[in-house]
């Protein structure tokens, strides 16, 4: 008879149902594994398809002799087992339960010299495509082991063929009790780890005995976290004169407070990973609007997870380490979201963009403008402008701003990212002293084709494909330019971590200032404080000089009331200026501490060339380029001096908005 795939499914389903209906069996054994093998025989199921409950815990006895107790288990077929594939990769049912993944593993063996004067061998069978144990390997190890007689090769072949992973007697040897190993147990100072060191047995000594080791651990006060798998490994493959971690405590874990589990991607740069960006002619493709994370009205935006109980820990000596329970804290909700009636879910009350800003979840609607911008706009969400933004506009969005065209001399403000598929040209002329030329600020990152004559400040990255010309740029992380014309010429570019472009400066020697290695905003704050203090110090000096002149002029004279009042006012003003200077000095000190604490290993790189006139500032080190670097180079600071090394490529995957 020829069975179809459906026939196989029905047969296997029937078999599985029969397995589940079989009653549980109660079995005994010296070890859990031995008891499970007994149950496997009675239930006619492999051990991987069995589940069990411990009825009585076993005990090997003191020194393997006194107070022995067998393990008693209640064993029944697993309900989480299902066949998922035929050998020829045809799919079978998997209606419930988990898929069993079989990983290949070689067979293994061990040789043990027992305290009863007998030699034992344990052989485990290979799994999957693993290699079986070779009798020759066992004989080879036996030949290098002290005290061992010649082993019966035929009996070994039978043990290997059975592969039951049990200790089987194979021979006898002349046992010498006084030649046994010695055990040394130590505990870490925090009582969280126990260590075991085993000395090599002498001629006639037995292999390490697990019951003896357990008893030694108890005598050393170790009652918790004993690693049974390590003990079994020691029995099968002893390690001598090595410190082995034999027990580990468990740290206490405080329970989590009420948490919100978001069902949308809060990092928009990750949301585009599934849609690979196409890069052509070394230009970054910025035309994909899939960065917007949209949700529909009534959709579950997040789940509210209740506070959890703390989980106490234990030292290896059994001491309890207390843990705190989590606290029920209110969920902070923004616009267009509400809690469900059972307070377990956050639901959107309007279709729009899901946002998570400063710990508050909200849904902001998306405003799409088809064509060029015609008026100022201030929007509480994400703006998509399918056209250009000319001169004189003010564009503000709490979320992201997406512009498919170019941007002129306008102001852009975004709480998230700004994407300009074209570029930005602030049209600033040499005679133009205004500071609002192309003013762009965003809380996250900026992507665009080019920047020219504009001011830009971002919370993370500036990424352009062509270059940056005569612009003032502040990036809290990196400024990255990659493309055939990816040049930075003129202006003042500052980034905490890295500045990288194809070329820096111009052949005309245009002054190009590049700074990295520190937080630009903190540095600006520091400079303002220093300038303010300098102004106060000038005013203080002037008042002090005037006051001294007055005091010298009226020395020994009786002053009229008006002059006396003037001197008193000057003295008060002097004291006030002195106090203001002291307060500013303290603020400067605090700001310098913040800058030092947030110092970065900054670097400045050019893949092609660096022209004369480029001024480099990394941390506190300064360097002005006086002659051209005609090949790729990376500048970095070490020991207060600027050094160079071979050019380092941009490590960030800028094609995906990271």
Describe what you observe in this structure.
By secondary structure, this protein is an alpha/beta fold. Among the domains are: 5-99, no CATH class; 108-175, no CATH class; 178-248, no CATH class; 259-362, no CATH class; 522-554 and 561-597. 22% of the residues lie in helices and 30% in strands. The protein contains nine helices and 43 strands. The strands form nine sheets. Strands 21, 23, 25, 27, 28, 30, 32, 34, 35, 37, 39, 42 and 43 form a 13-stranded mixed beta sheet that branches. A hairpin with a 2-residue loop joins strand 19 and strand 20 (360-364). Helix 8 (520-553) runs antiparallel to helix 9 (561-597). The model is unreliable at 1-5, 62-66, 80-100, 271-292 and 429-437 (pLDDT under 50).
How would you sum up this structure in a few lines?
This protein is α/β, with parallel strands linked by helices and 658 residues long. α8 runs antiparallel to α9 (561-597). The radius of gyration is 38 Å and the shape is elongated.
Structure keywords:
658 residues, alpha/beta, 13-stranded mixed sheet, 9 helices, 43 strands, elongated, disordered N terminus
Q: Which sheet architecture does the biggest sheet show?
A: 13 strands, mixed
Structural class: alpha/beta
Overall residue-averaged pLDDT value: 81
User: What is the 3D form?
Assistant: elongated
> How much helical structure, as a percent, in the residues?
10-25%
Determine the number of helices (DSSP H or I, runs of at least 4 residues).
9
Outline the secondary-structure elements:
Elements: H1 5-21, E1 25-29, H2 32-43, E2 50-56, E3 71-77, E4 81-82, E5 98-99, E6 108-113, E7 118-124, H3 135-143, H4 153-162, E8 168-172, E9 183-187, E10 193-198, H5 210-219, H6 228-236, E11 244-248, E12 259-262, H7 268-271, E13 294-295, E14 300-305, E15 313-314, E16 320-321, E17 337-339, E18 345-348, E19 352-357, E20 360-364, E21 366-370, E22 377-379, E23 382-386, E24 394-397, E25 401-403, E26 411-414, E27 418-420, E28 424-425, E29 439-442, E30 446-452, E31 455-458, E32 461-469, E33 472-475, E34 478-481, E35 487-489, E36 492-495, E37 498-504, E38 512-516, H8 520-553, H9 561-597, E39 603-610, E40 614-618, E41 621-624, E42 633-638, E43 641-645
Parallel strand pairs: 4-5, 21-23, 22-24, 23-25, 24-26, 25-27, 26-29, 27-30, 28-30, 29-31, 30-32, 31-33, 32-34, 32-35, 33-36, 34-37, 35-37, 36-38, 37-39, 38-40
Antiparallel strand pairs: 1-3, 2-3, 6-7, 7-8, 9-10, 10-11, 12-14, 13-19, 14-18, 15-16, 17-18, 19-20, 39-42, 40-41, 42-43
Helix pairs in contact: 8-9
